Amino acid sequence: MSTPEVHVRRYGHGSRVPGWDVPVDLDKDPATVPDPATTAVPAELRATIEGFIARYPDRRSAAIPALWAAQLTHGWCSPEAIRQVACVMTLTPAYLAQLVGFYDMFEEHPVGRHQVYVCTNISCSLRGADALHQAFREAAEGDAHFNIRGFECLGACDIAPMASVNGDYLGPLELSDAERVVRALQDGGEPPPGLRLGDRPNAGLTLEAQRAGDPGRGTRPSGGGDQPDRSDQGDPSGGASASAAAGSDASSGQRDPAPDESPDAPDDPGTTGQPANPKI
Ligand code: FES
Question: In angstroms, what is the span from residue 121 Cα to ligand 1's centroid?
């Protein structure tokens, strides 16, 4: 049986798609910059955006951090949020909307205020990230305040499996940690102590000590792998843990020791508890 021949229209320049210089719709009004007289912008957001603009010779360079600030203010990049940024930056909303549509950490629809990004890239995947992602989803099921999603390498592979929770890096995580983290946030608190990257003696406290100018505390422990005592935090067998899933010592319930970090490691934006994103 022969396949019917399909004729696809070609434009005058020979392509099947319009040229880049062909206007989409001449009947529409040209895009305009929102009028400051009729566009209310929260004072704090305005000041933040103006601070970003002042950093660059071209104000458009501040578009991503400005949109991020608006997303933090409104919870998502709503049309109103985009108009506010456009007003302060004297750009068209369309210019900013294209950025929001391109970068997937900008939300184009309302989402829960708790942002939980579970890394599912290779290092975390080998240590049970898919099960951890599922555990978070189940723990927060039905709670619209949570935005739980997978993410591809958050740049903290040494604490795999890990997640970014409202910008804090947590790891290495066990399956039981998902429920503990979600419950703590639901109760209005912070993630349980000992899970955050900044809580680790060989990273966060060293950085803290360095900032405090205390050379004694700034010296990394000789063991290099001091981890919080988690013996009282459930699942002592380790049998259902993500670590166990990845082959750690299930009989002892111990986590694998974290690798040593160089003194420069805290300066890496990917390992300081800040997400690898335009958040500034
Ligand atoms: S693979 Fe998970 S942080 Fe890199």
Answer: 5
- Is residue 195 within 8 A of residue 181, CB to CB? The reply is yes
What band does 30 get if pLDDT is binned at 50, 70 and 90? Answer: confident
Q: Which residues line ligand 1 (CB under 6 A)?
A: 119, 121-124, 153-157, 160, 162
- With tokens 């578009």, the residue in question is 63
Q: Report the predicted TM-score, pTM, of the whole model to 2 decimal places.
A: 0.62
Of 183, 199, 215, the last residue of a domain is 199
Tell me the pLDDT tens digit for each residue of 120-138: 999 999 999 999 999 999 9
The burial of 72, by beta-carbon neighbours within 10 Å (0-12 exposed, 13-18 middle, 19 or more buried), is given as middle
Residue 226 lies in a domain: no
pLDDT (0 to 100) of residue 209: 60
Domain ranges, residue 98: 43-102
